[in-house]
Design a protein that fits this description.
By secondary structure, the protein is α/β, with parallel strands linked by helices. It has helices at about 5-10, 10-15, 20-25, 45-55, 65-80, 110-115, 115-125, 140-150, 165-185, 190-210, and strands at about 35-40, 60-65, 85-90, 100-110, 125-140, 155-160, 215-220. Helix content is about 45%, strand content about 25%. The structure holds S-adenosylmethionine (SAM).
């Protein structure tokens, strides 16, 4: 039997613990009936599916990683959301949606790929007049980012930092505990142990640099 260690690690379960912040950011927007939402860099879709729970709208999850999109597609099907949620394999650098076609653009953990300023400028044209852009980003250079927002053609509706220990307590520490358990379970499987050591190395790196692993939400409206 093949062991799918990614499934056993199931990091999405821990990522879901941070959905309360997705919800908090979403509640900072005015109510929109059946919004059309684009989630850029959706990954396996933890925030995408939270948005589907929070709205009655249509959501597109966009990412370049087919493996993540396959996982999200499976969840969409299982949850009976195929009518409202779809995925698109495309790079955020190559999006060719119709101008002014989204009420909301959402991006968690992905704007750093394109850069905060370029993301704000490039994605603006896809928003309807008065549409909303919500970005969950690393905490680095928050003050400079806040200054860029009006320069890039948005009003800031609000922003908030996640609590200092949120990523550690809600995500990385539970992941570490899961790794410990799997190490015992697969103690006789060198291949799996190598994968688990690699995962543990990533967590050790986070532990050494906890202050860098903080994040902030920006809630913006197109001017
Ligand atoms: C840190 S993950 C965030 C996933 C998800 N939004 C979340 O918060 O759980 C960043 C995602 O950006 C995606 N990504 C990286 N480069 C990309 C690109 N050029 N275009 C679209 N997505 C990209 C990655 O594949 C990954 O799924």
């Amino acid at each position: 039997m093949t062991i799918n260690i990614e499934d056993e690690l199931n990091e999405d379960i821990f990522r879901e613990r941070l959905n309360k912040y997705t919800k908090k950011a979403f509640r900072m927007l005015p109510e929109i009936d059946k919004p059309r939402i684009l989630d850029i860099g959706c990954g396996t879709g933890v925030p995408t599916l939270e948005l589907a729970r929070l709205t009655n709208g249509q959501i597109i999850g966009l990412d370049t990683d087919q493996n993540s999109l396959d996982k999200l597609n499976k969840k969409i099907k299982e949850k009976g959301l195929s009518e409202r949620v779809e995925t698109v394999k495309c790079s955020m650098f190559e999006m060719d949606f119709t101008d002014e076609s989204f009420d909301v653009i959402w991006s968690e953990g992905s704007v750093s790929v394109i850069g905060f300023e370029r993301g704000l400028r490039d994605w603006r044209r896809f928003l309807k007049p008065g549409g909303f852009l919500v970005i969950h980003d690393e905490i680095k250079n928050t003050e400079e980012k806040l200054k860029k927002i009006p320069e890039c053609g948005y009003n800031l509706l609000g922003h908030f930092r996640l609590p200092e220990d949120a990523w550690w307590k809600e995500y990385y520490q539970p992941c570490e505990k899961r790794i410990e358990k799997l190490r015992v379970k697969y103690r006789d499987n060198p291949k799996i142990l190598t994968v688990l050591s690699e995962e543990q190395r990533k967590i050790d790196d986070v532990k050494r640099n906890l202050e860098l692993h903080r994040s902030v939400f920006f809630i913006m409206q197109k001017k």
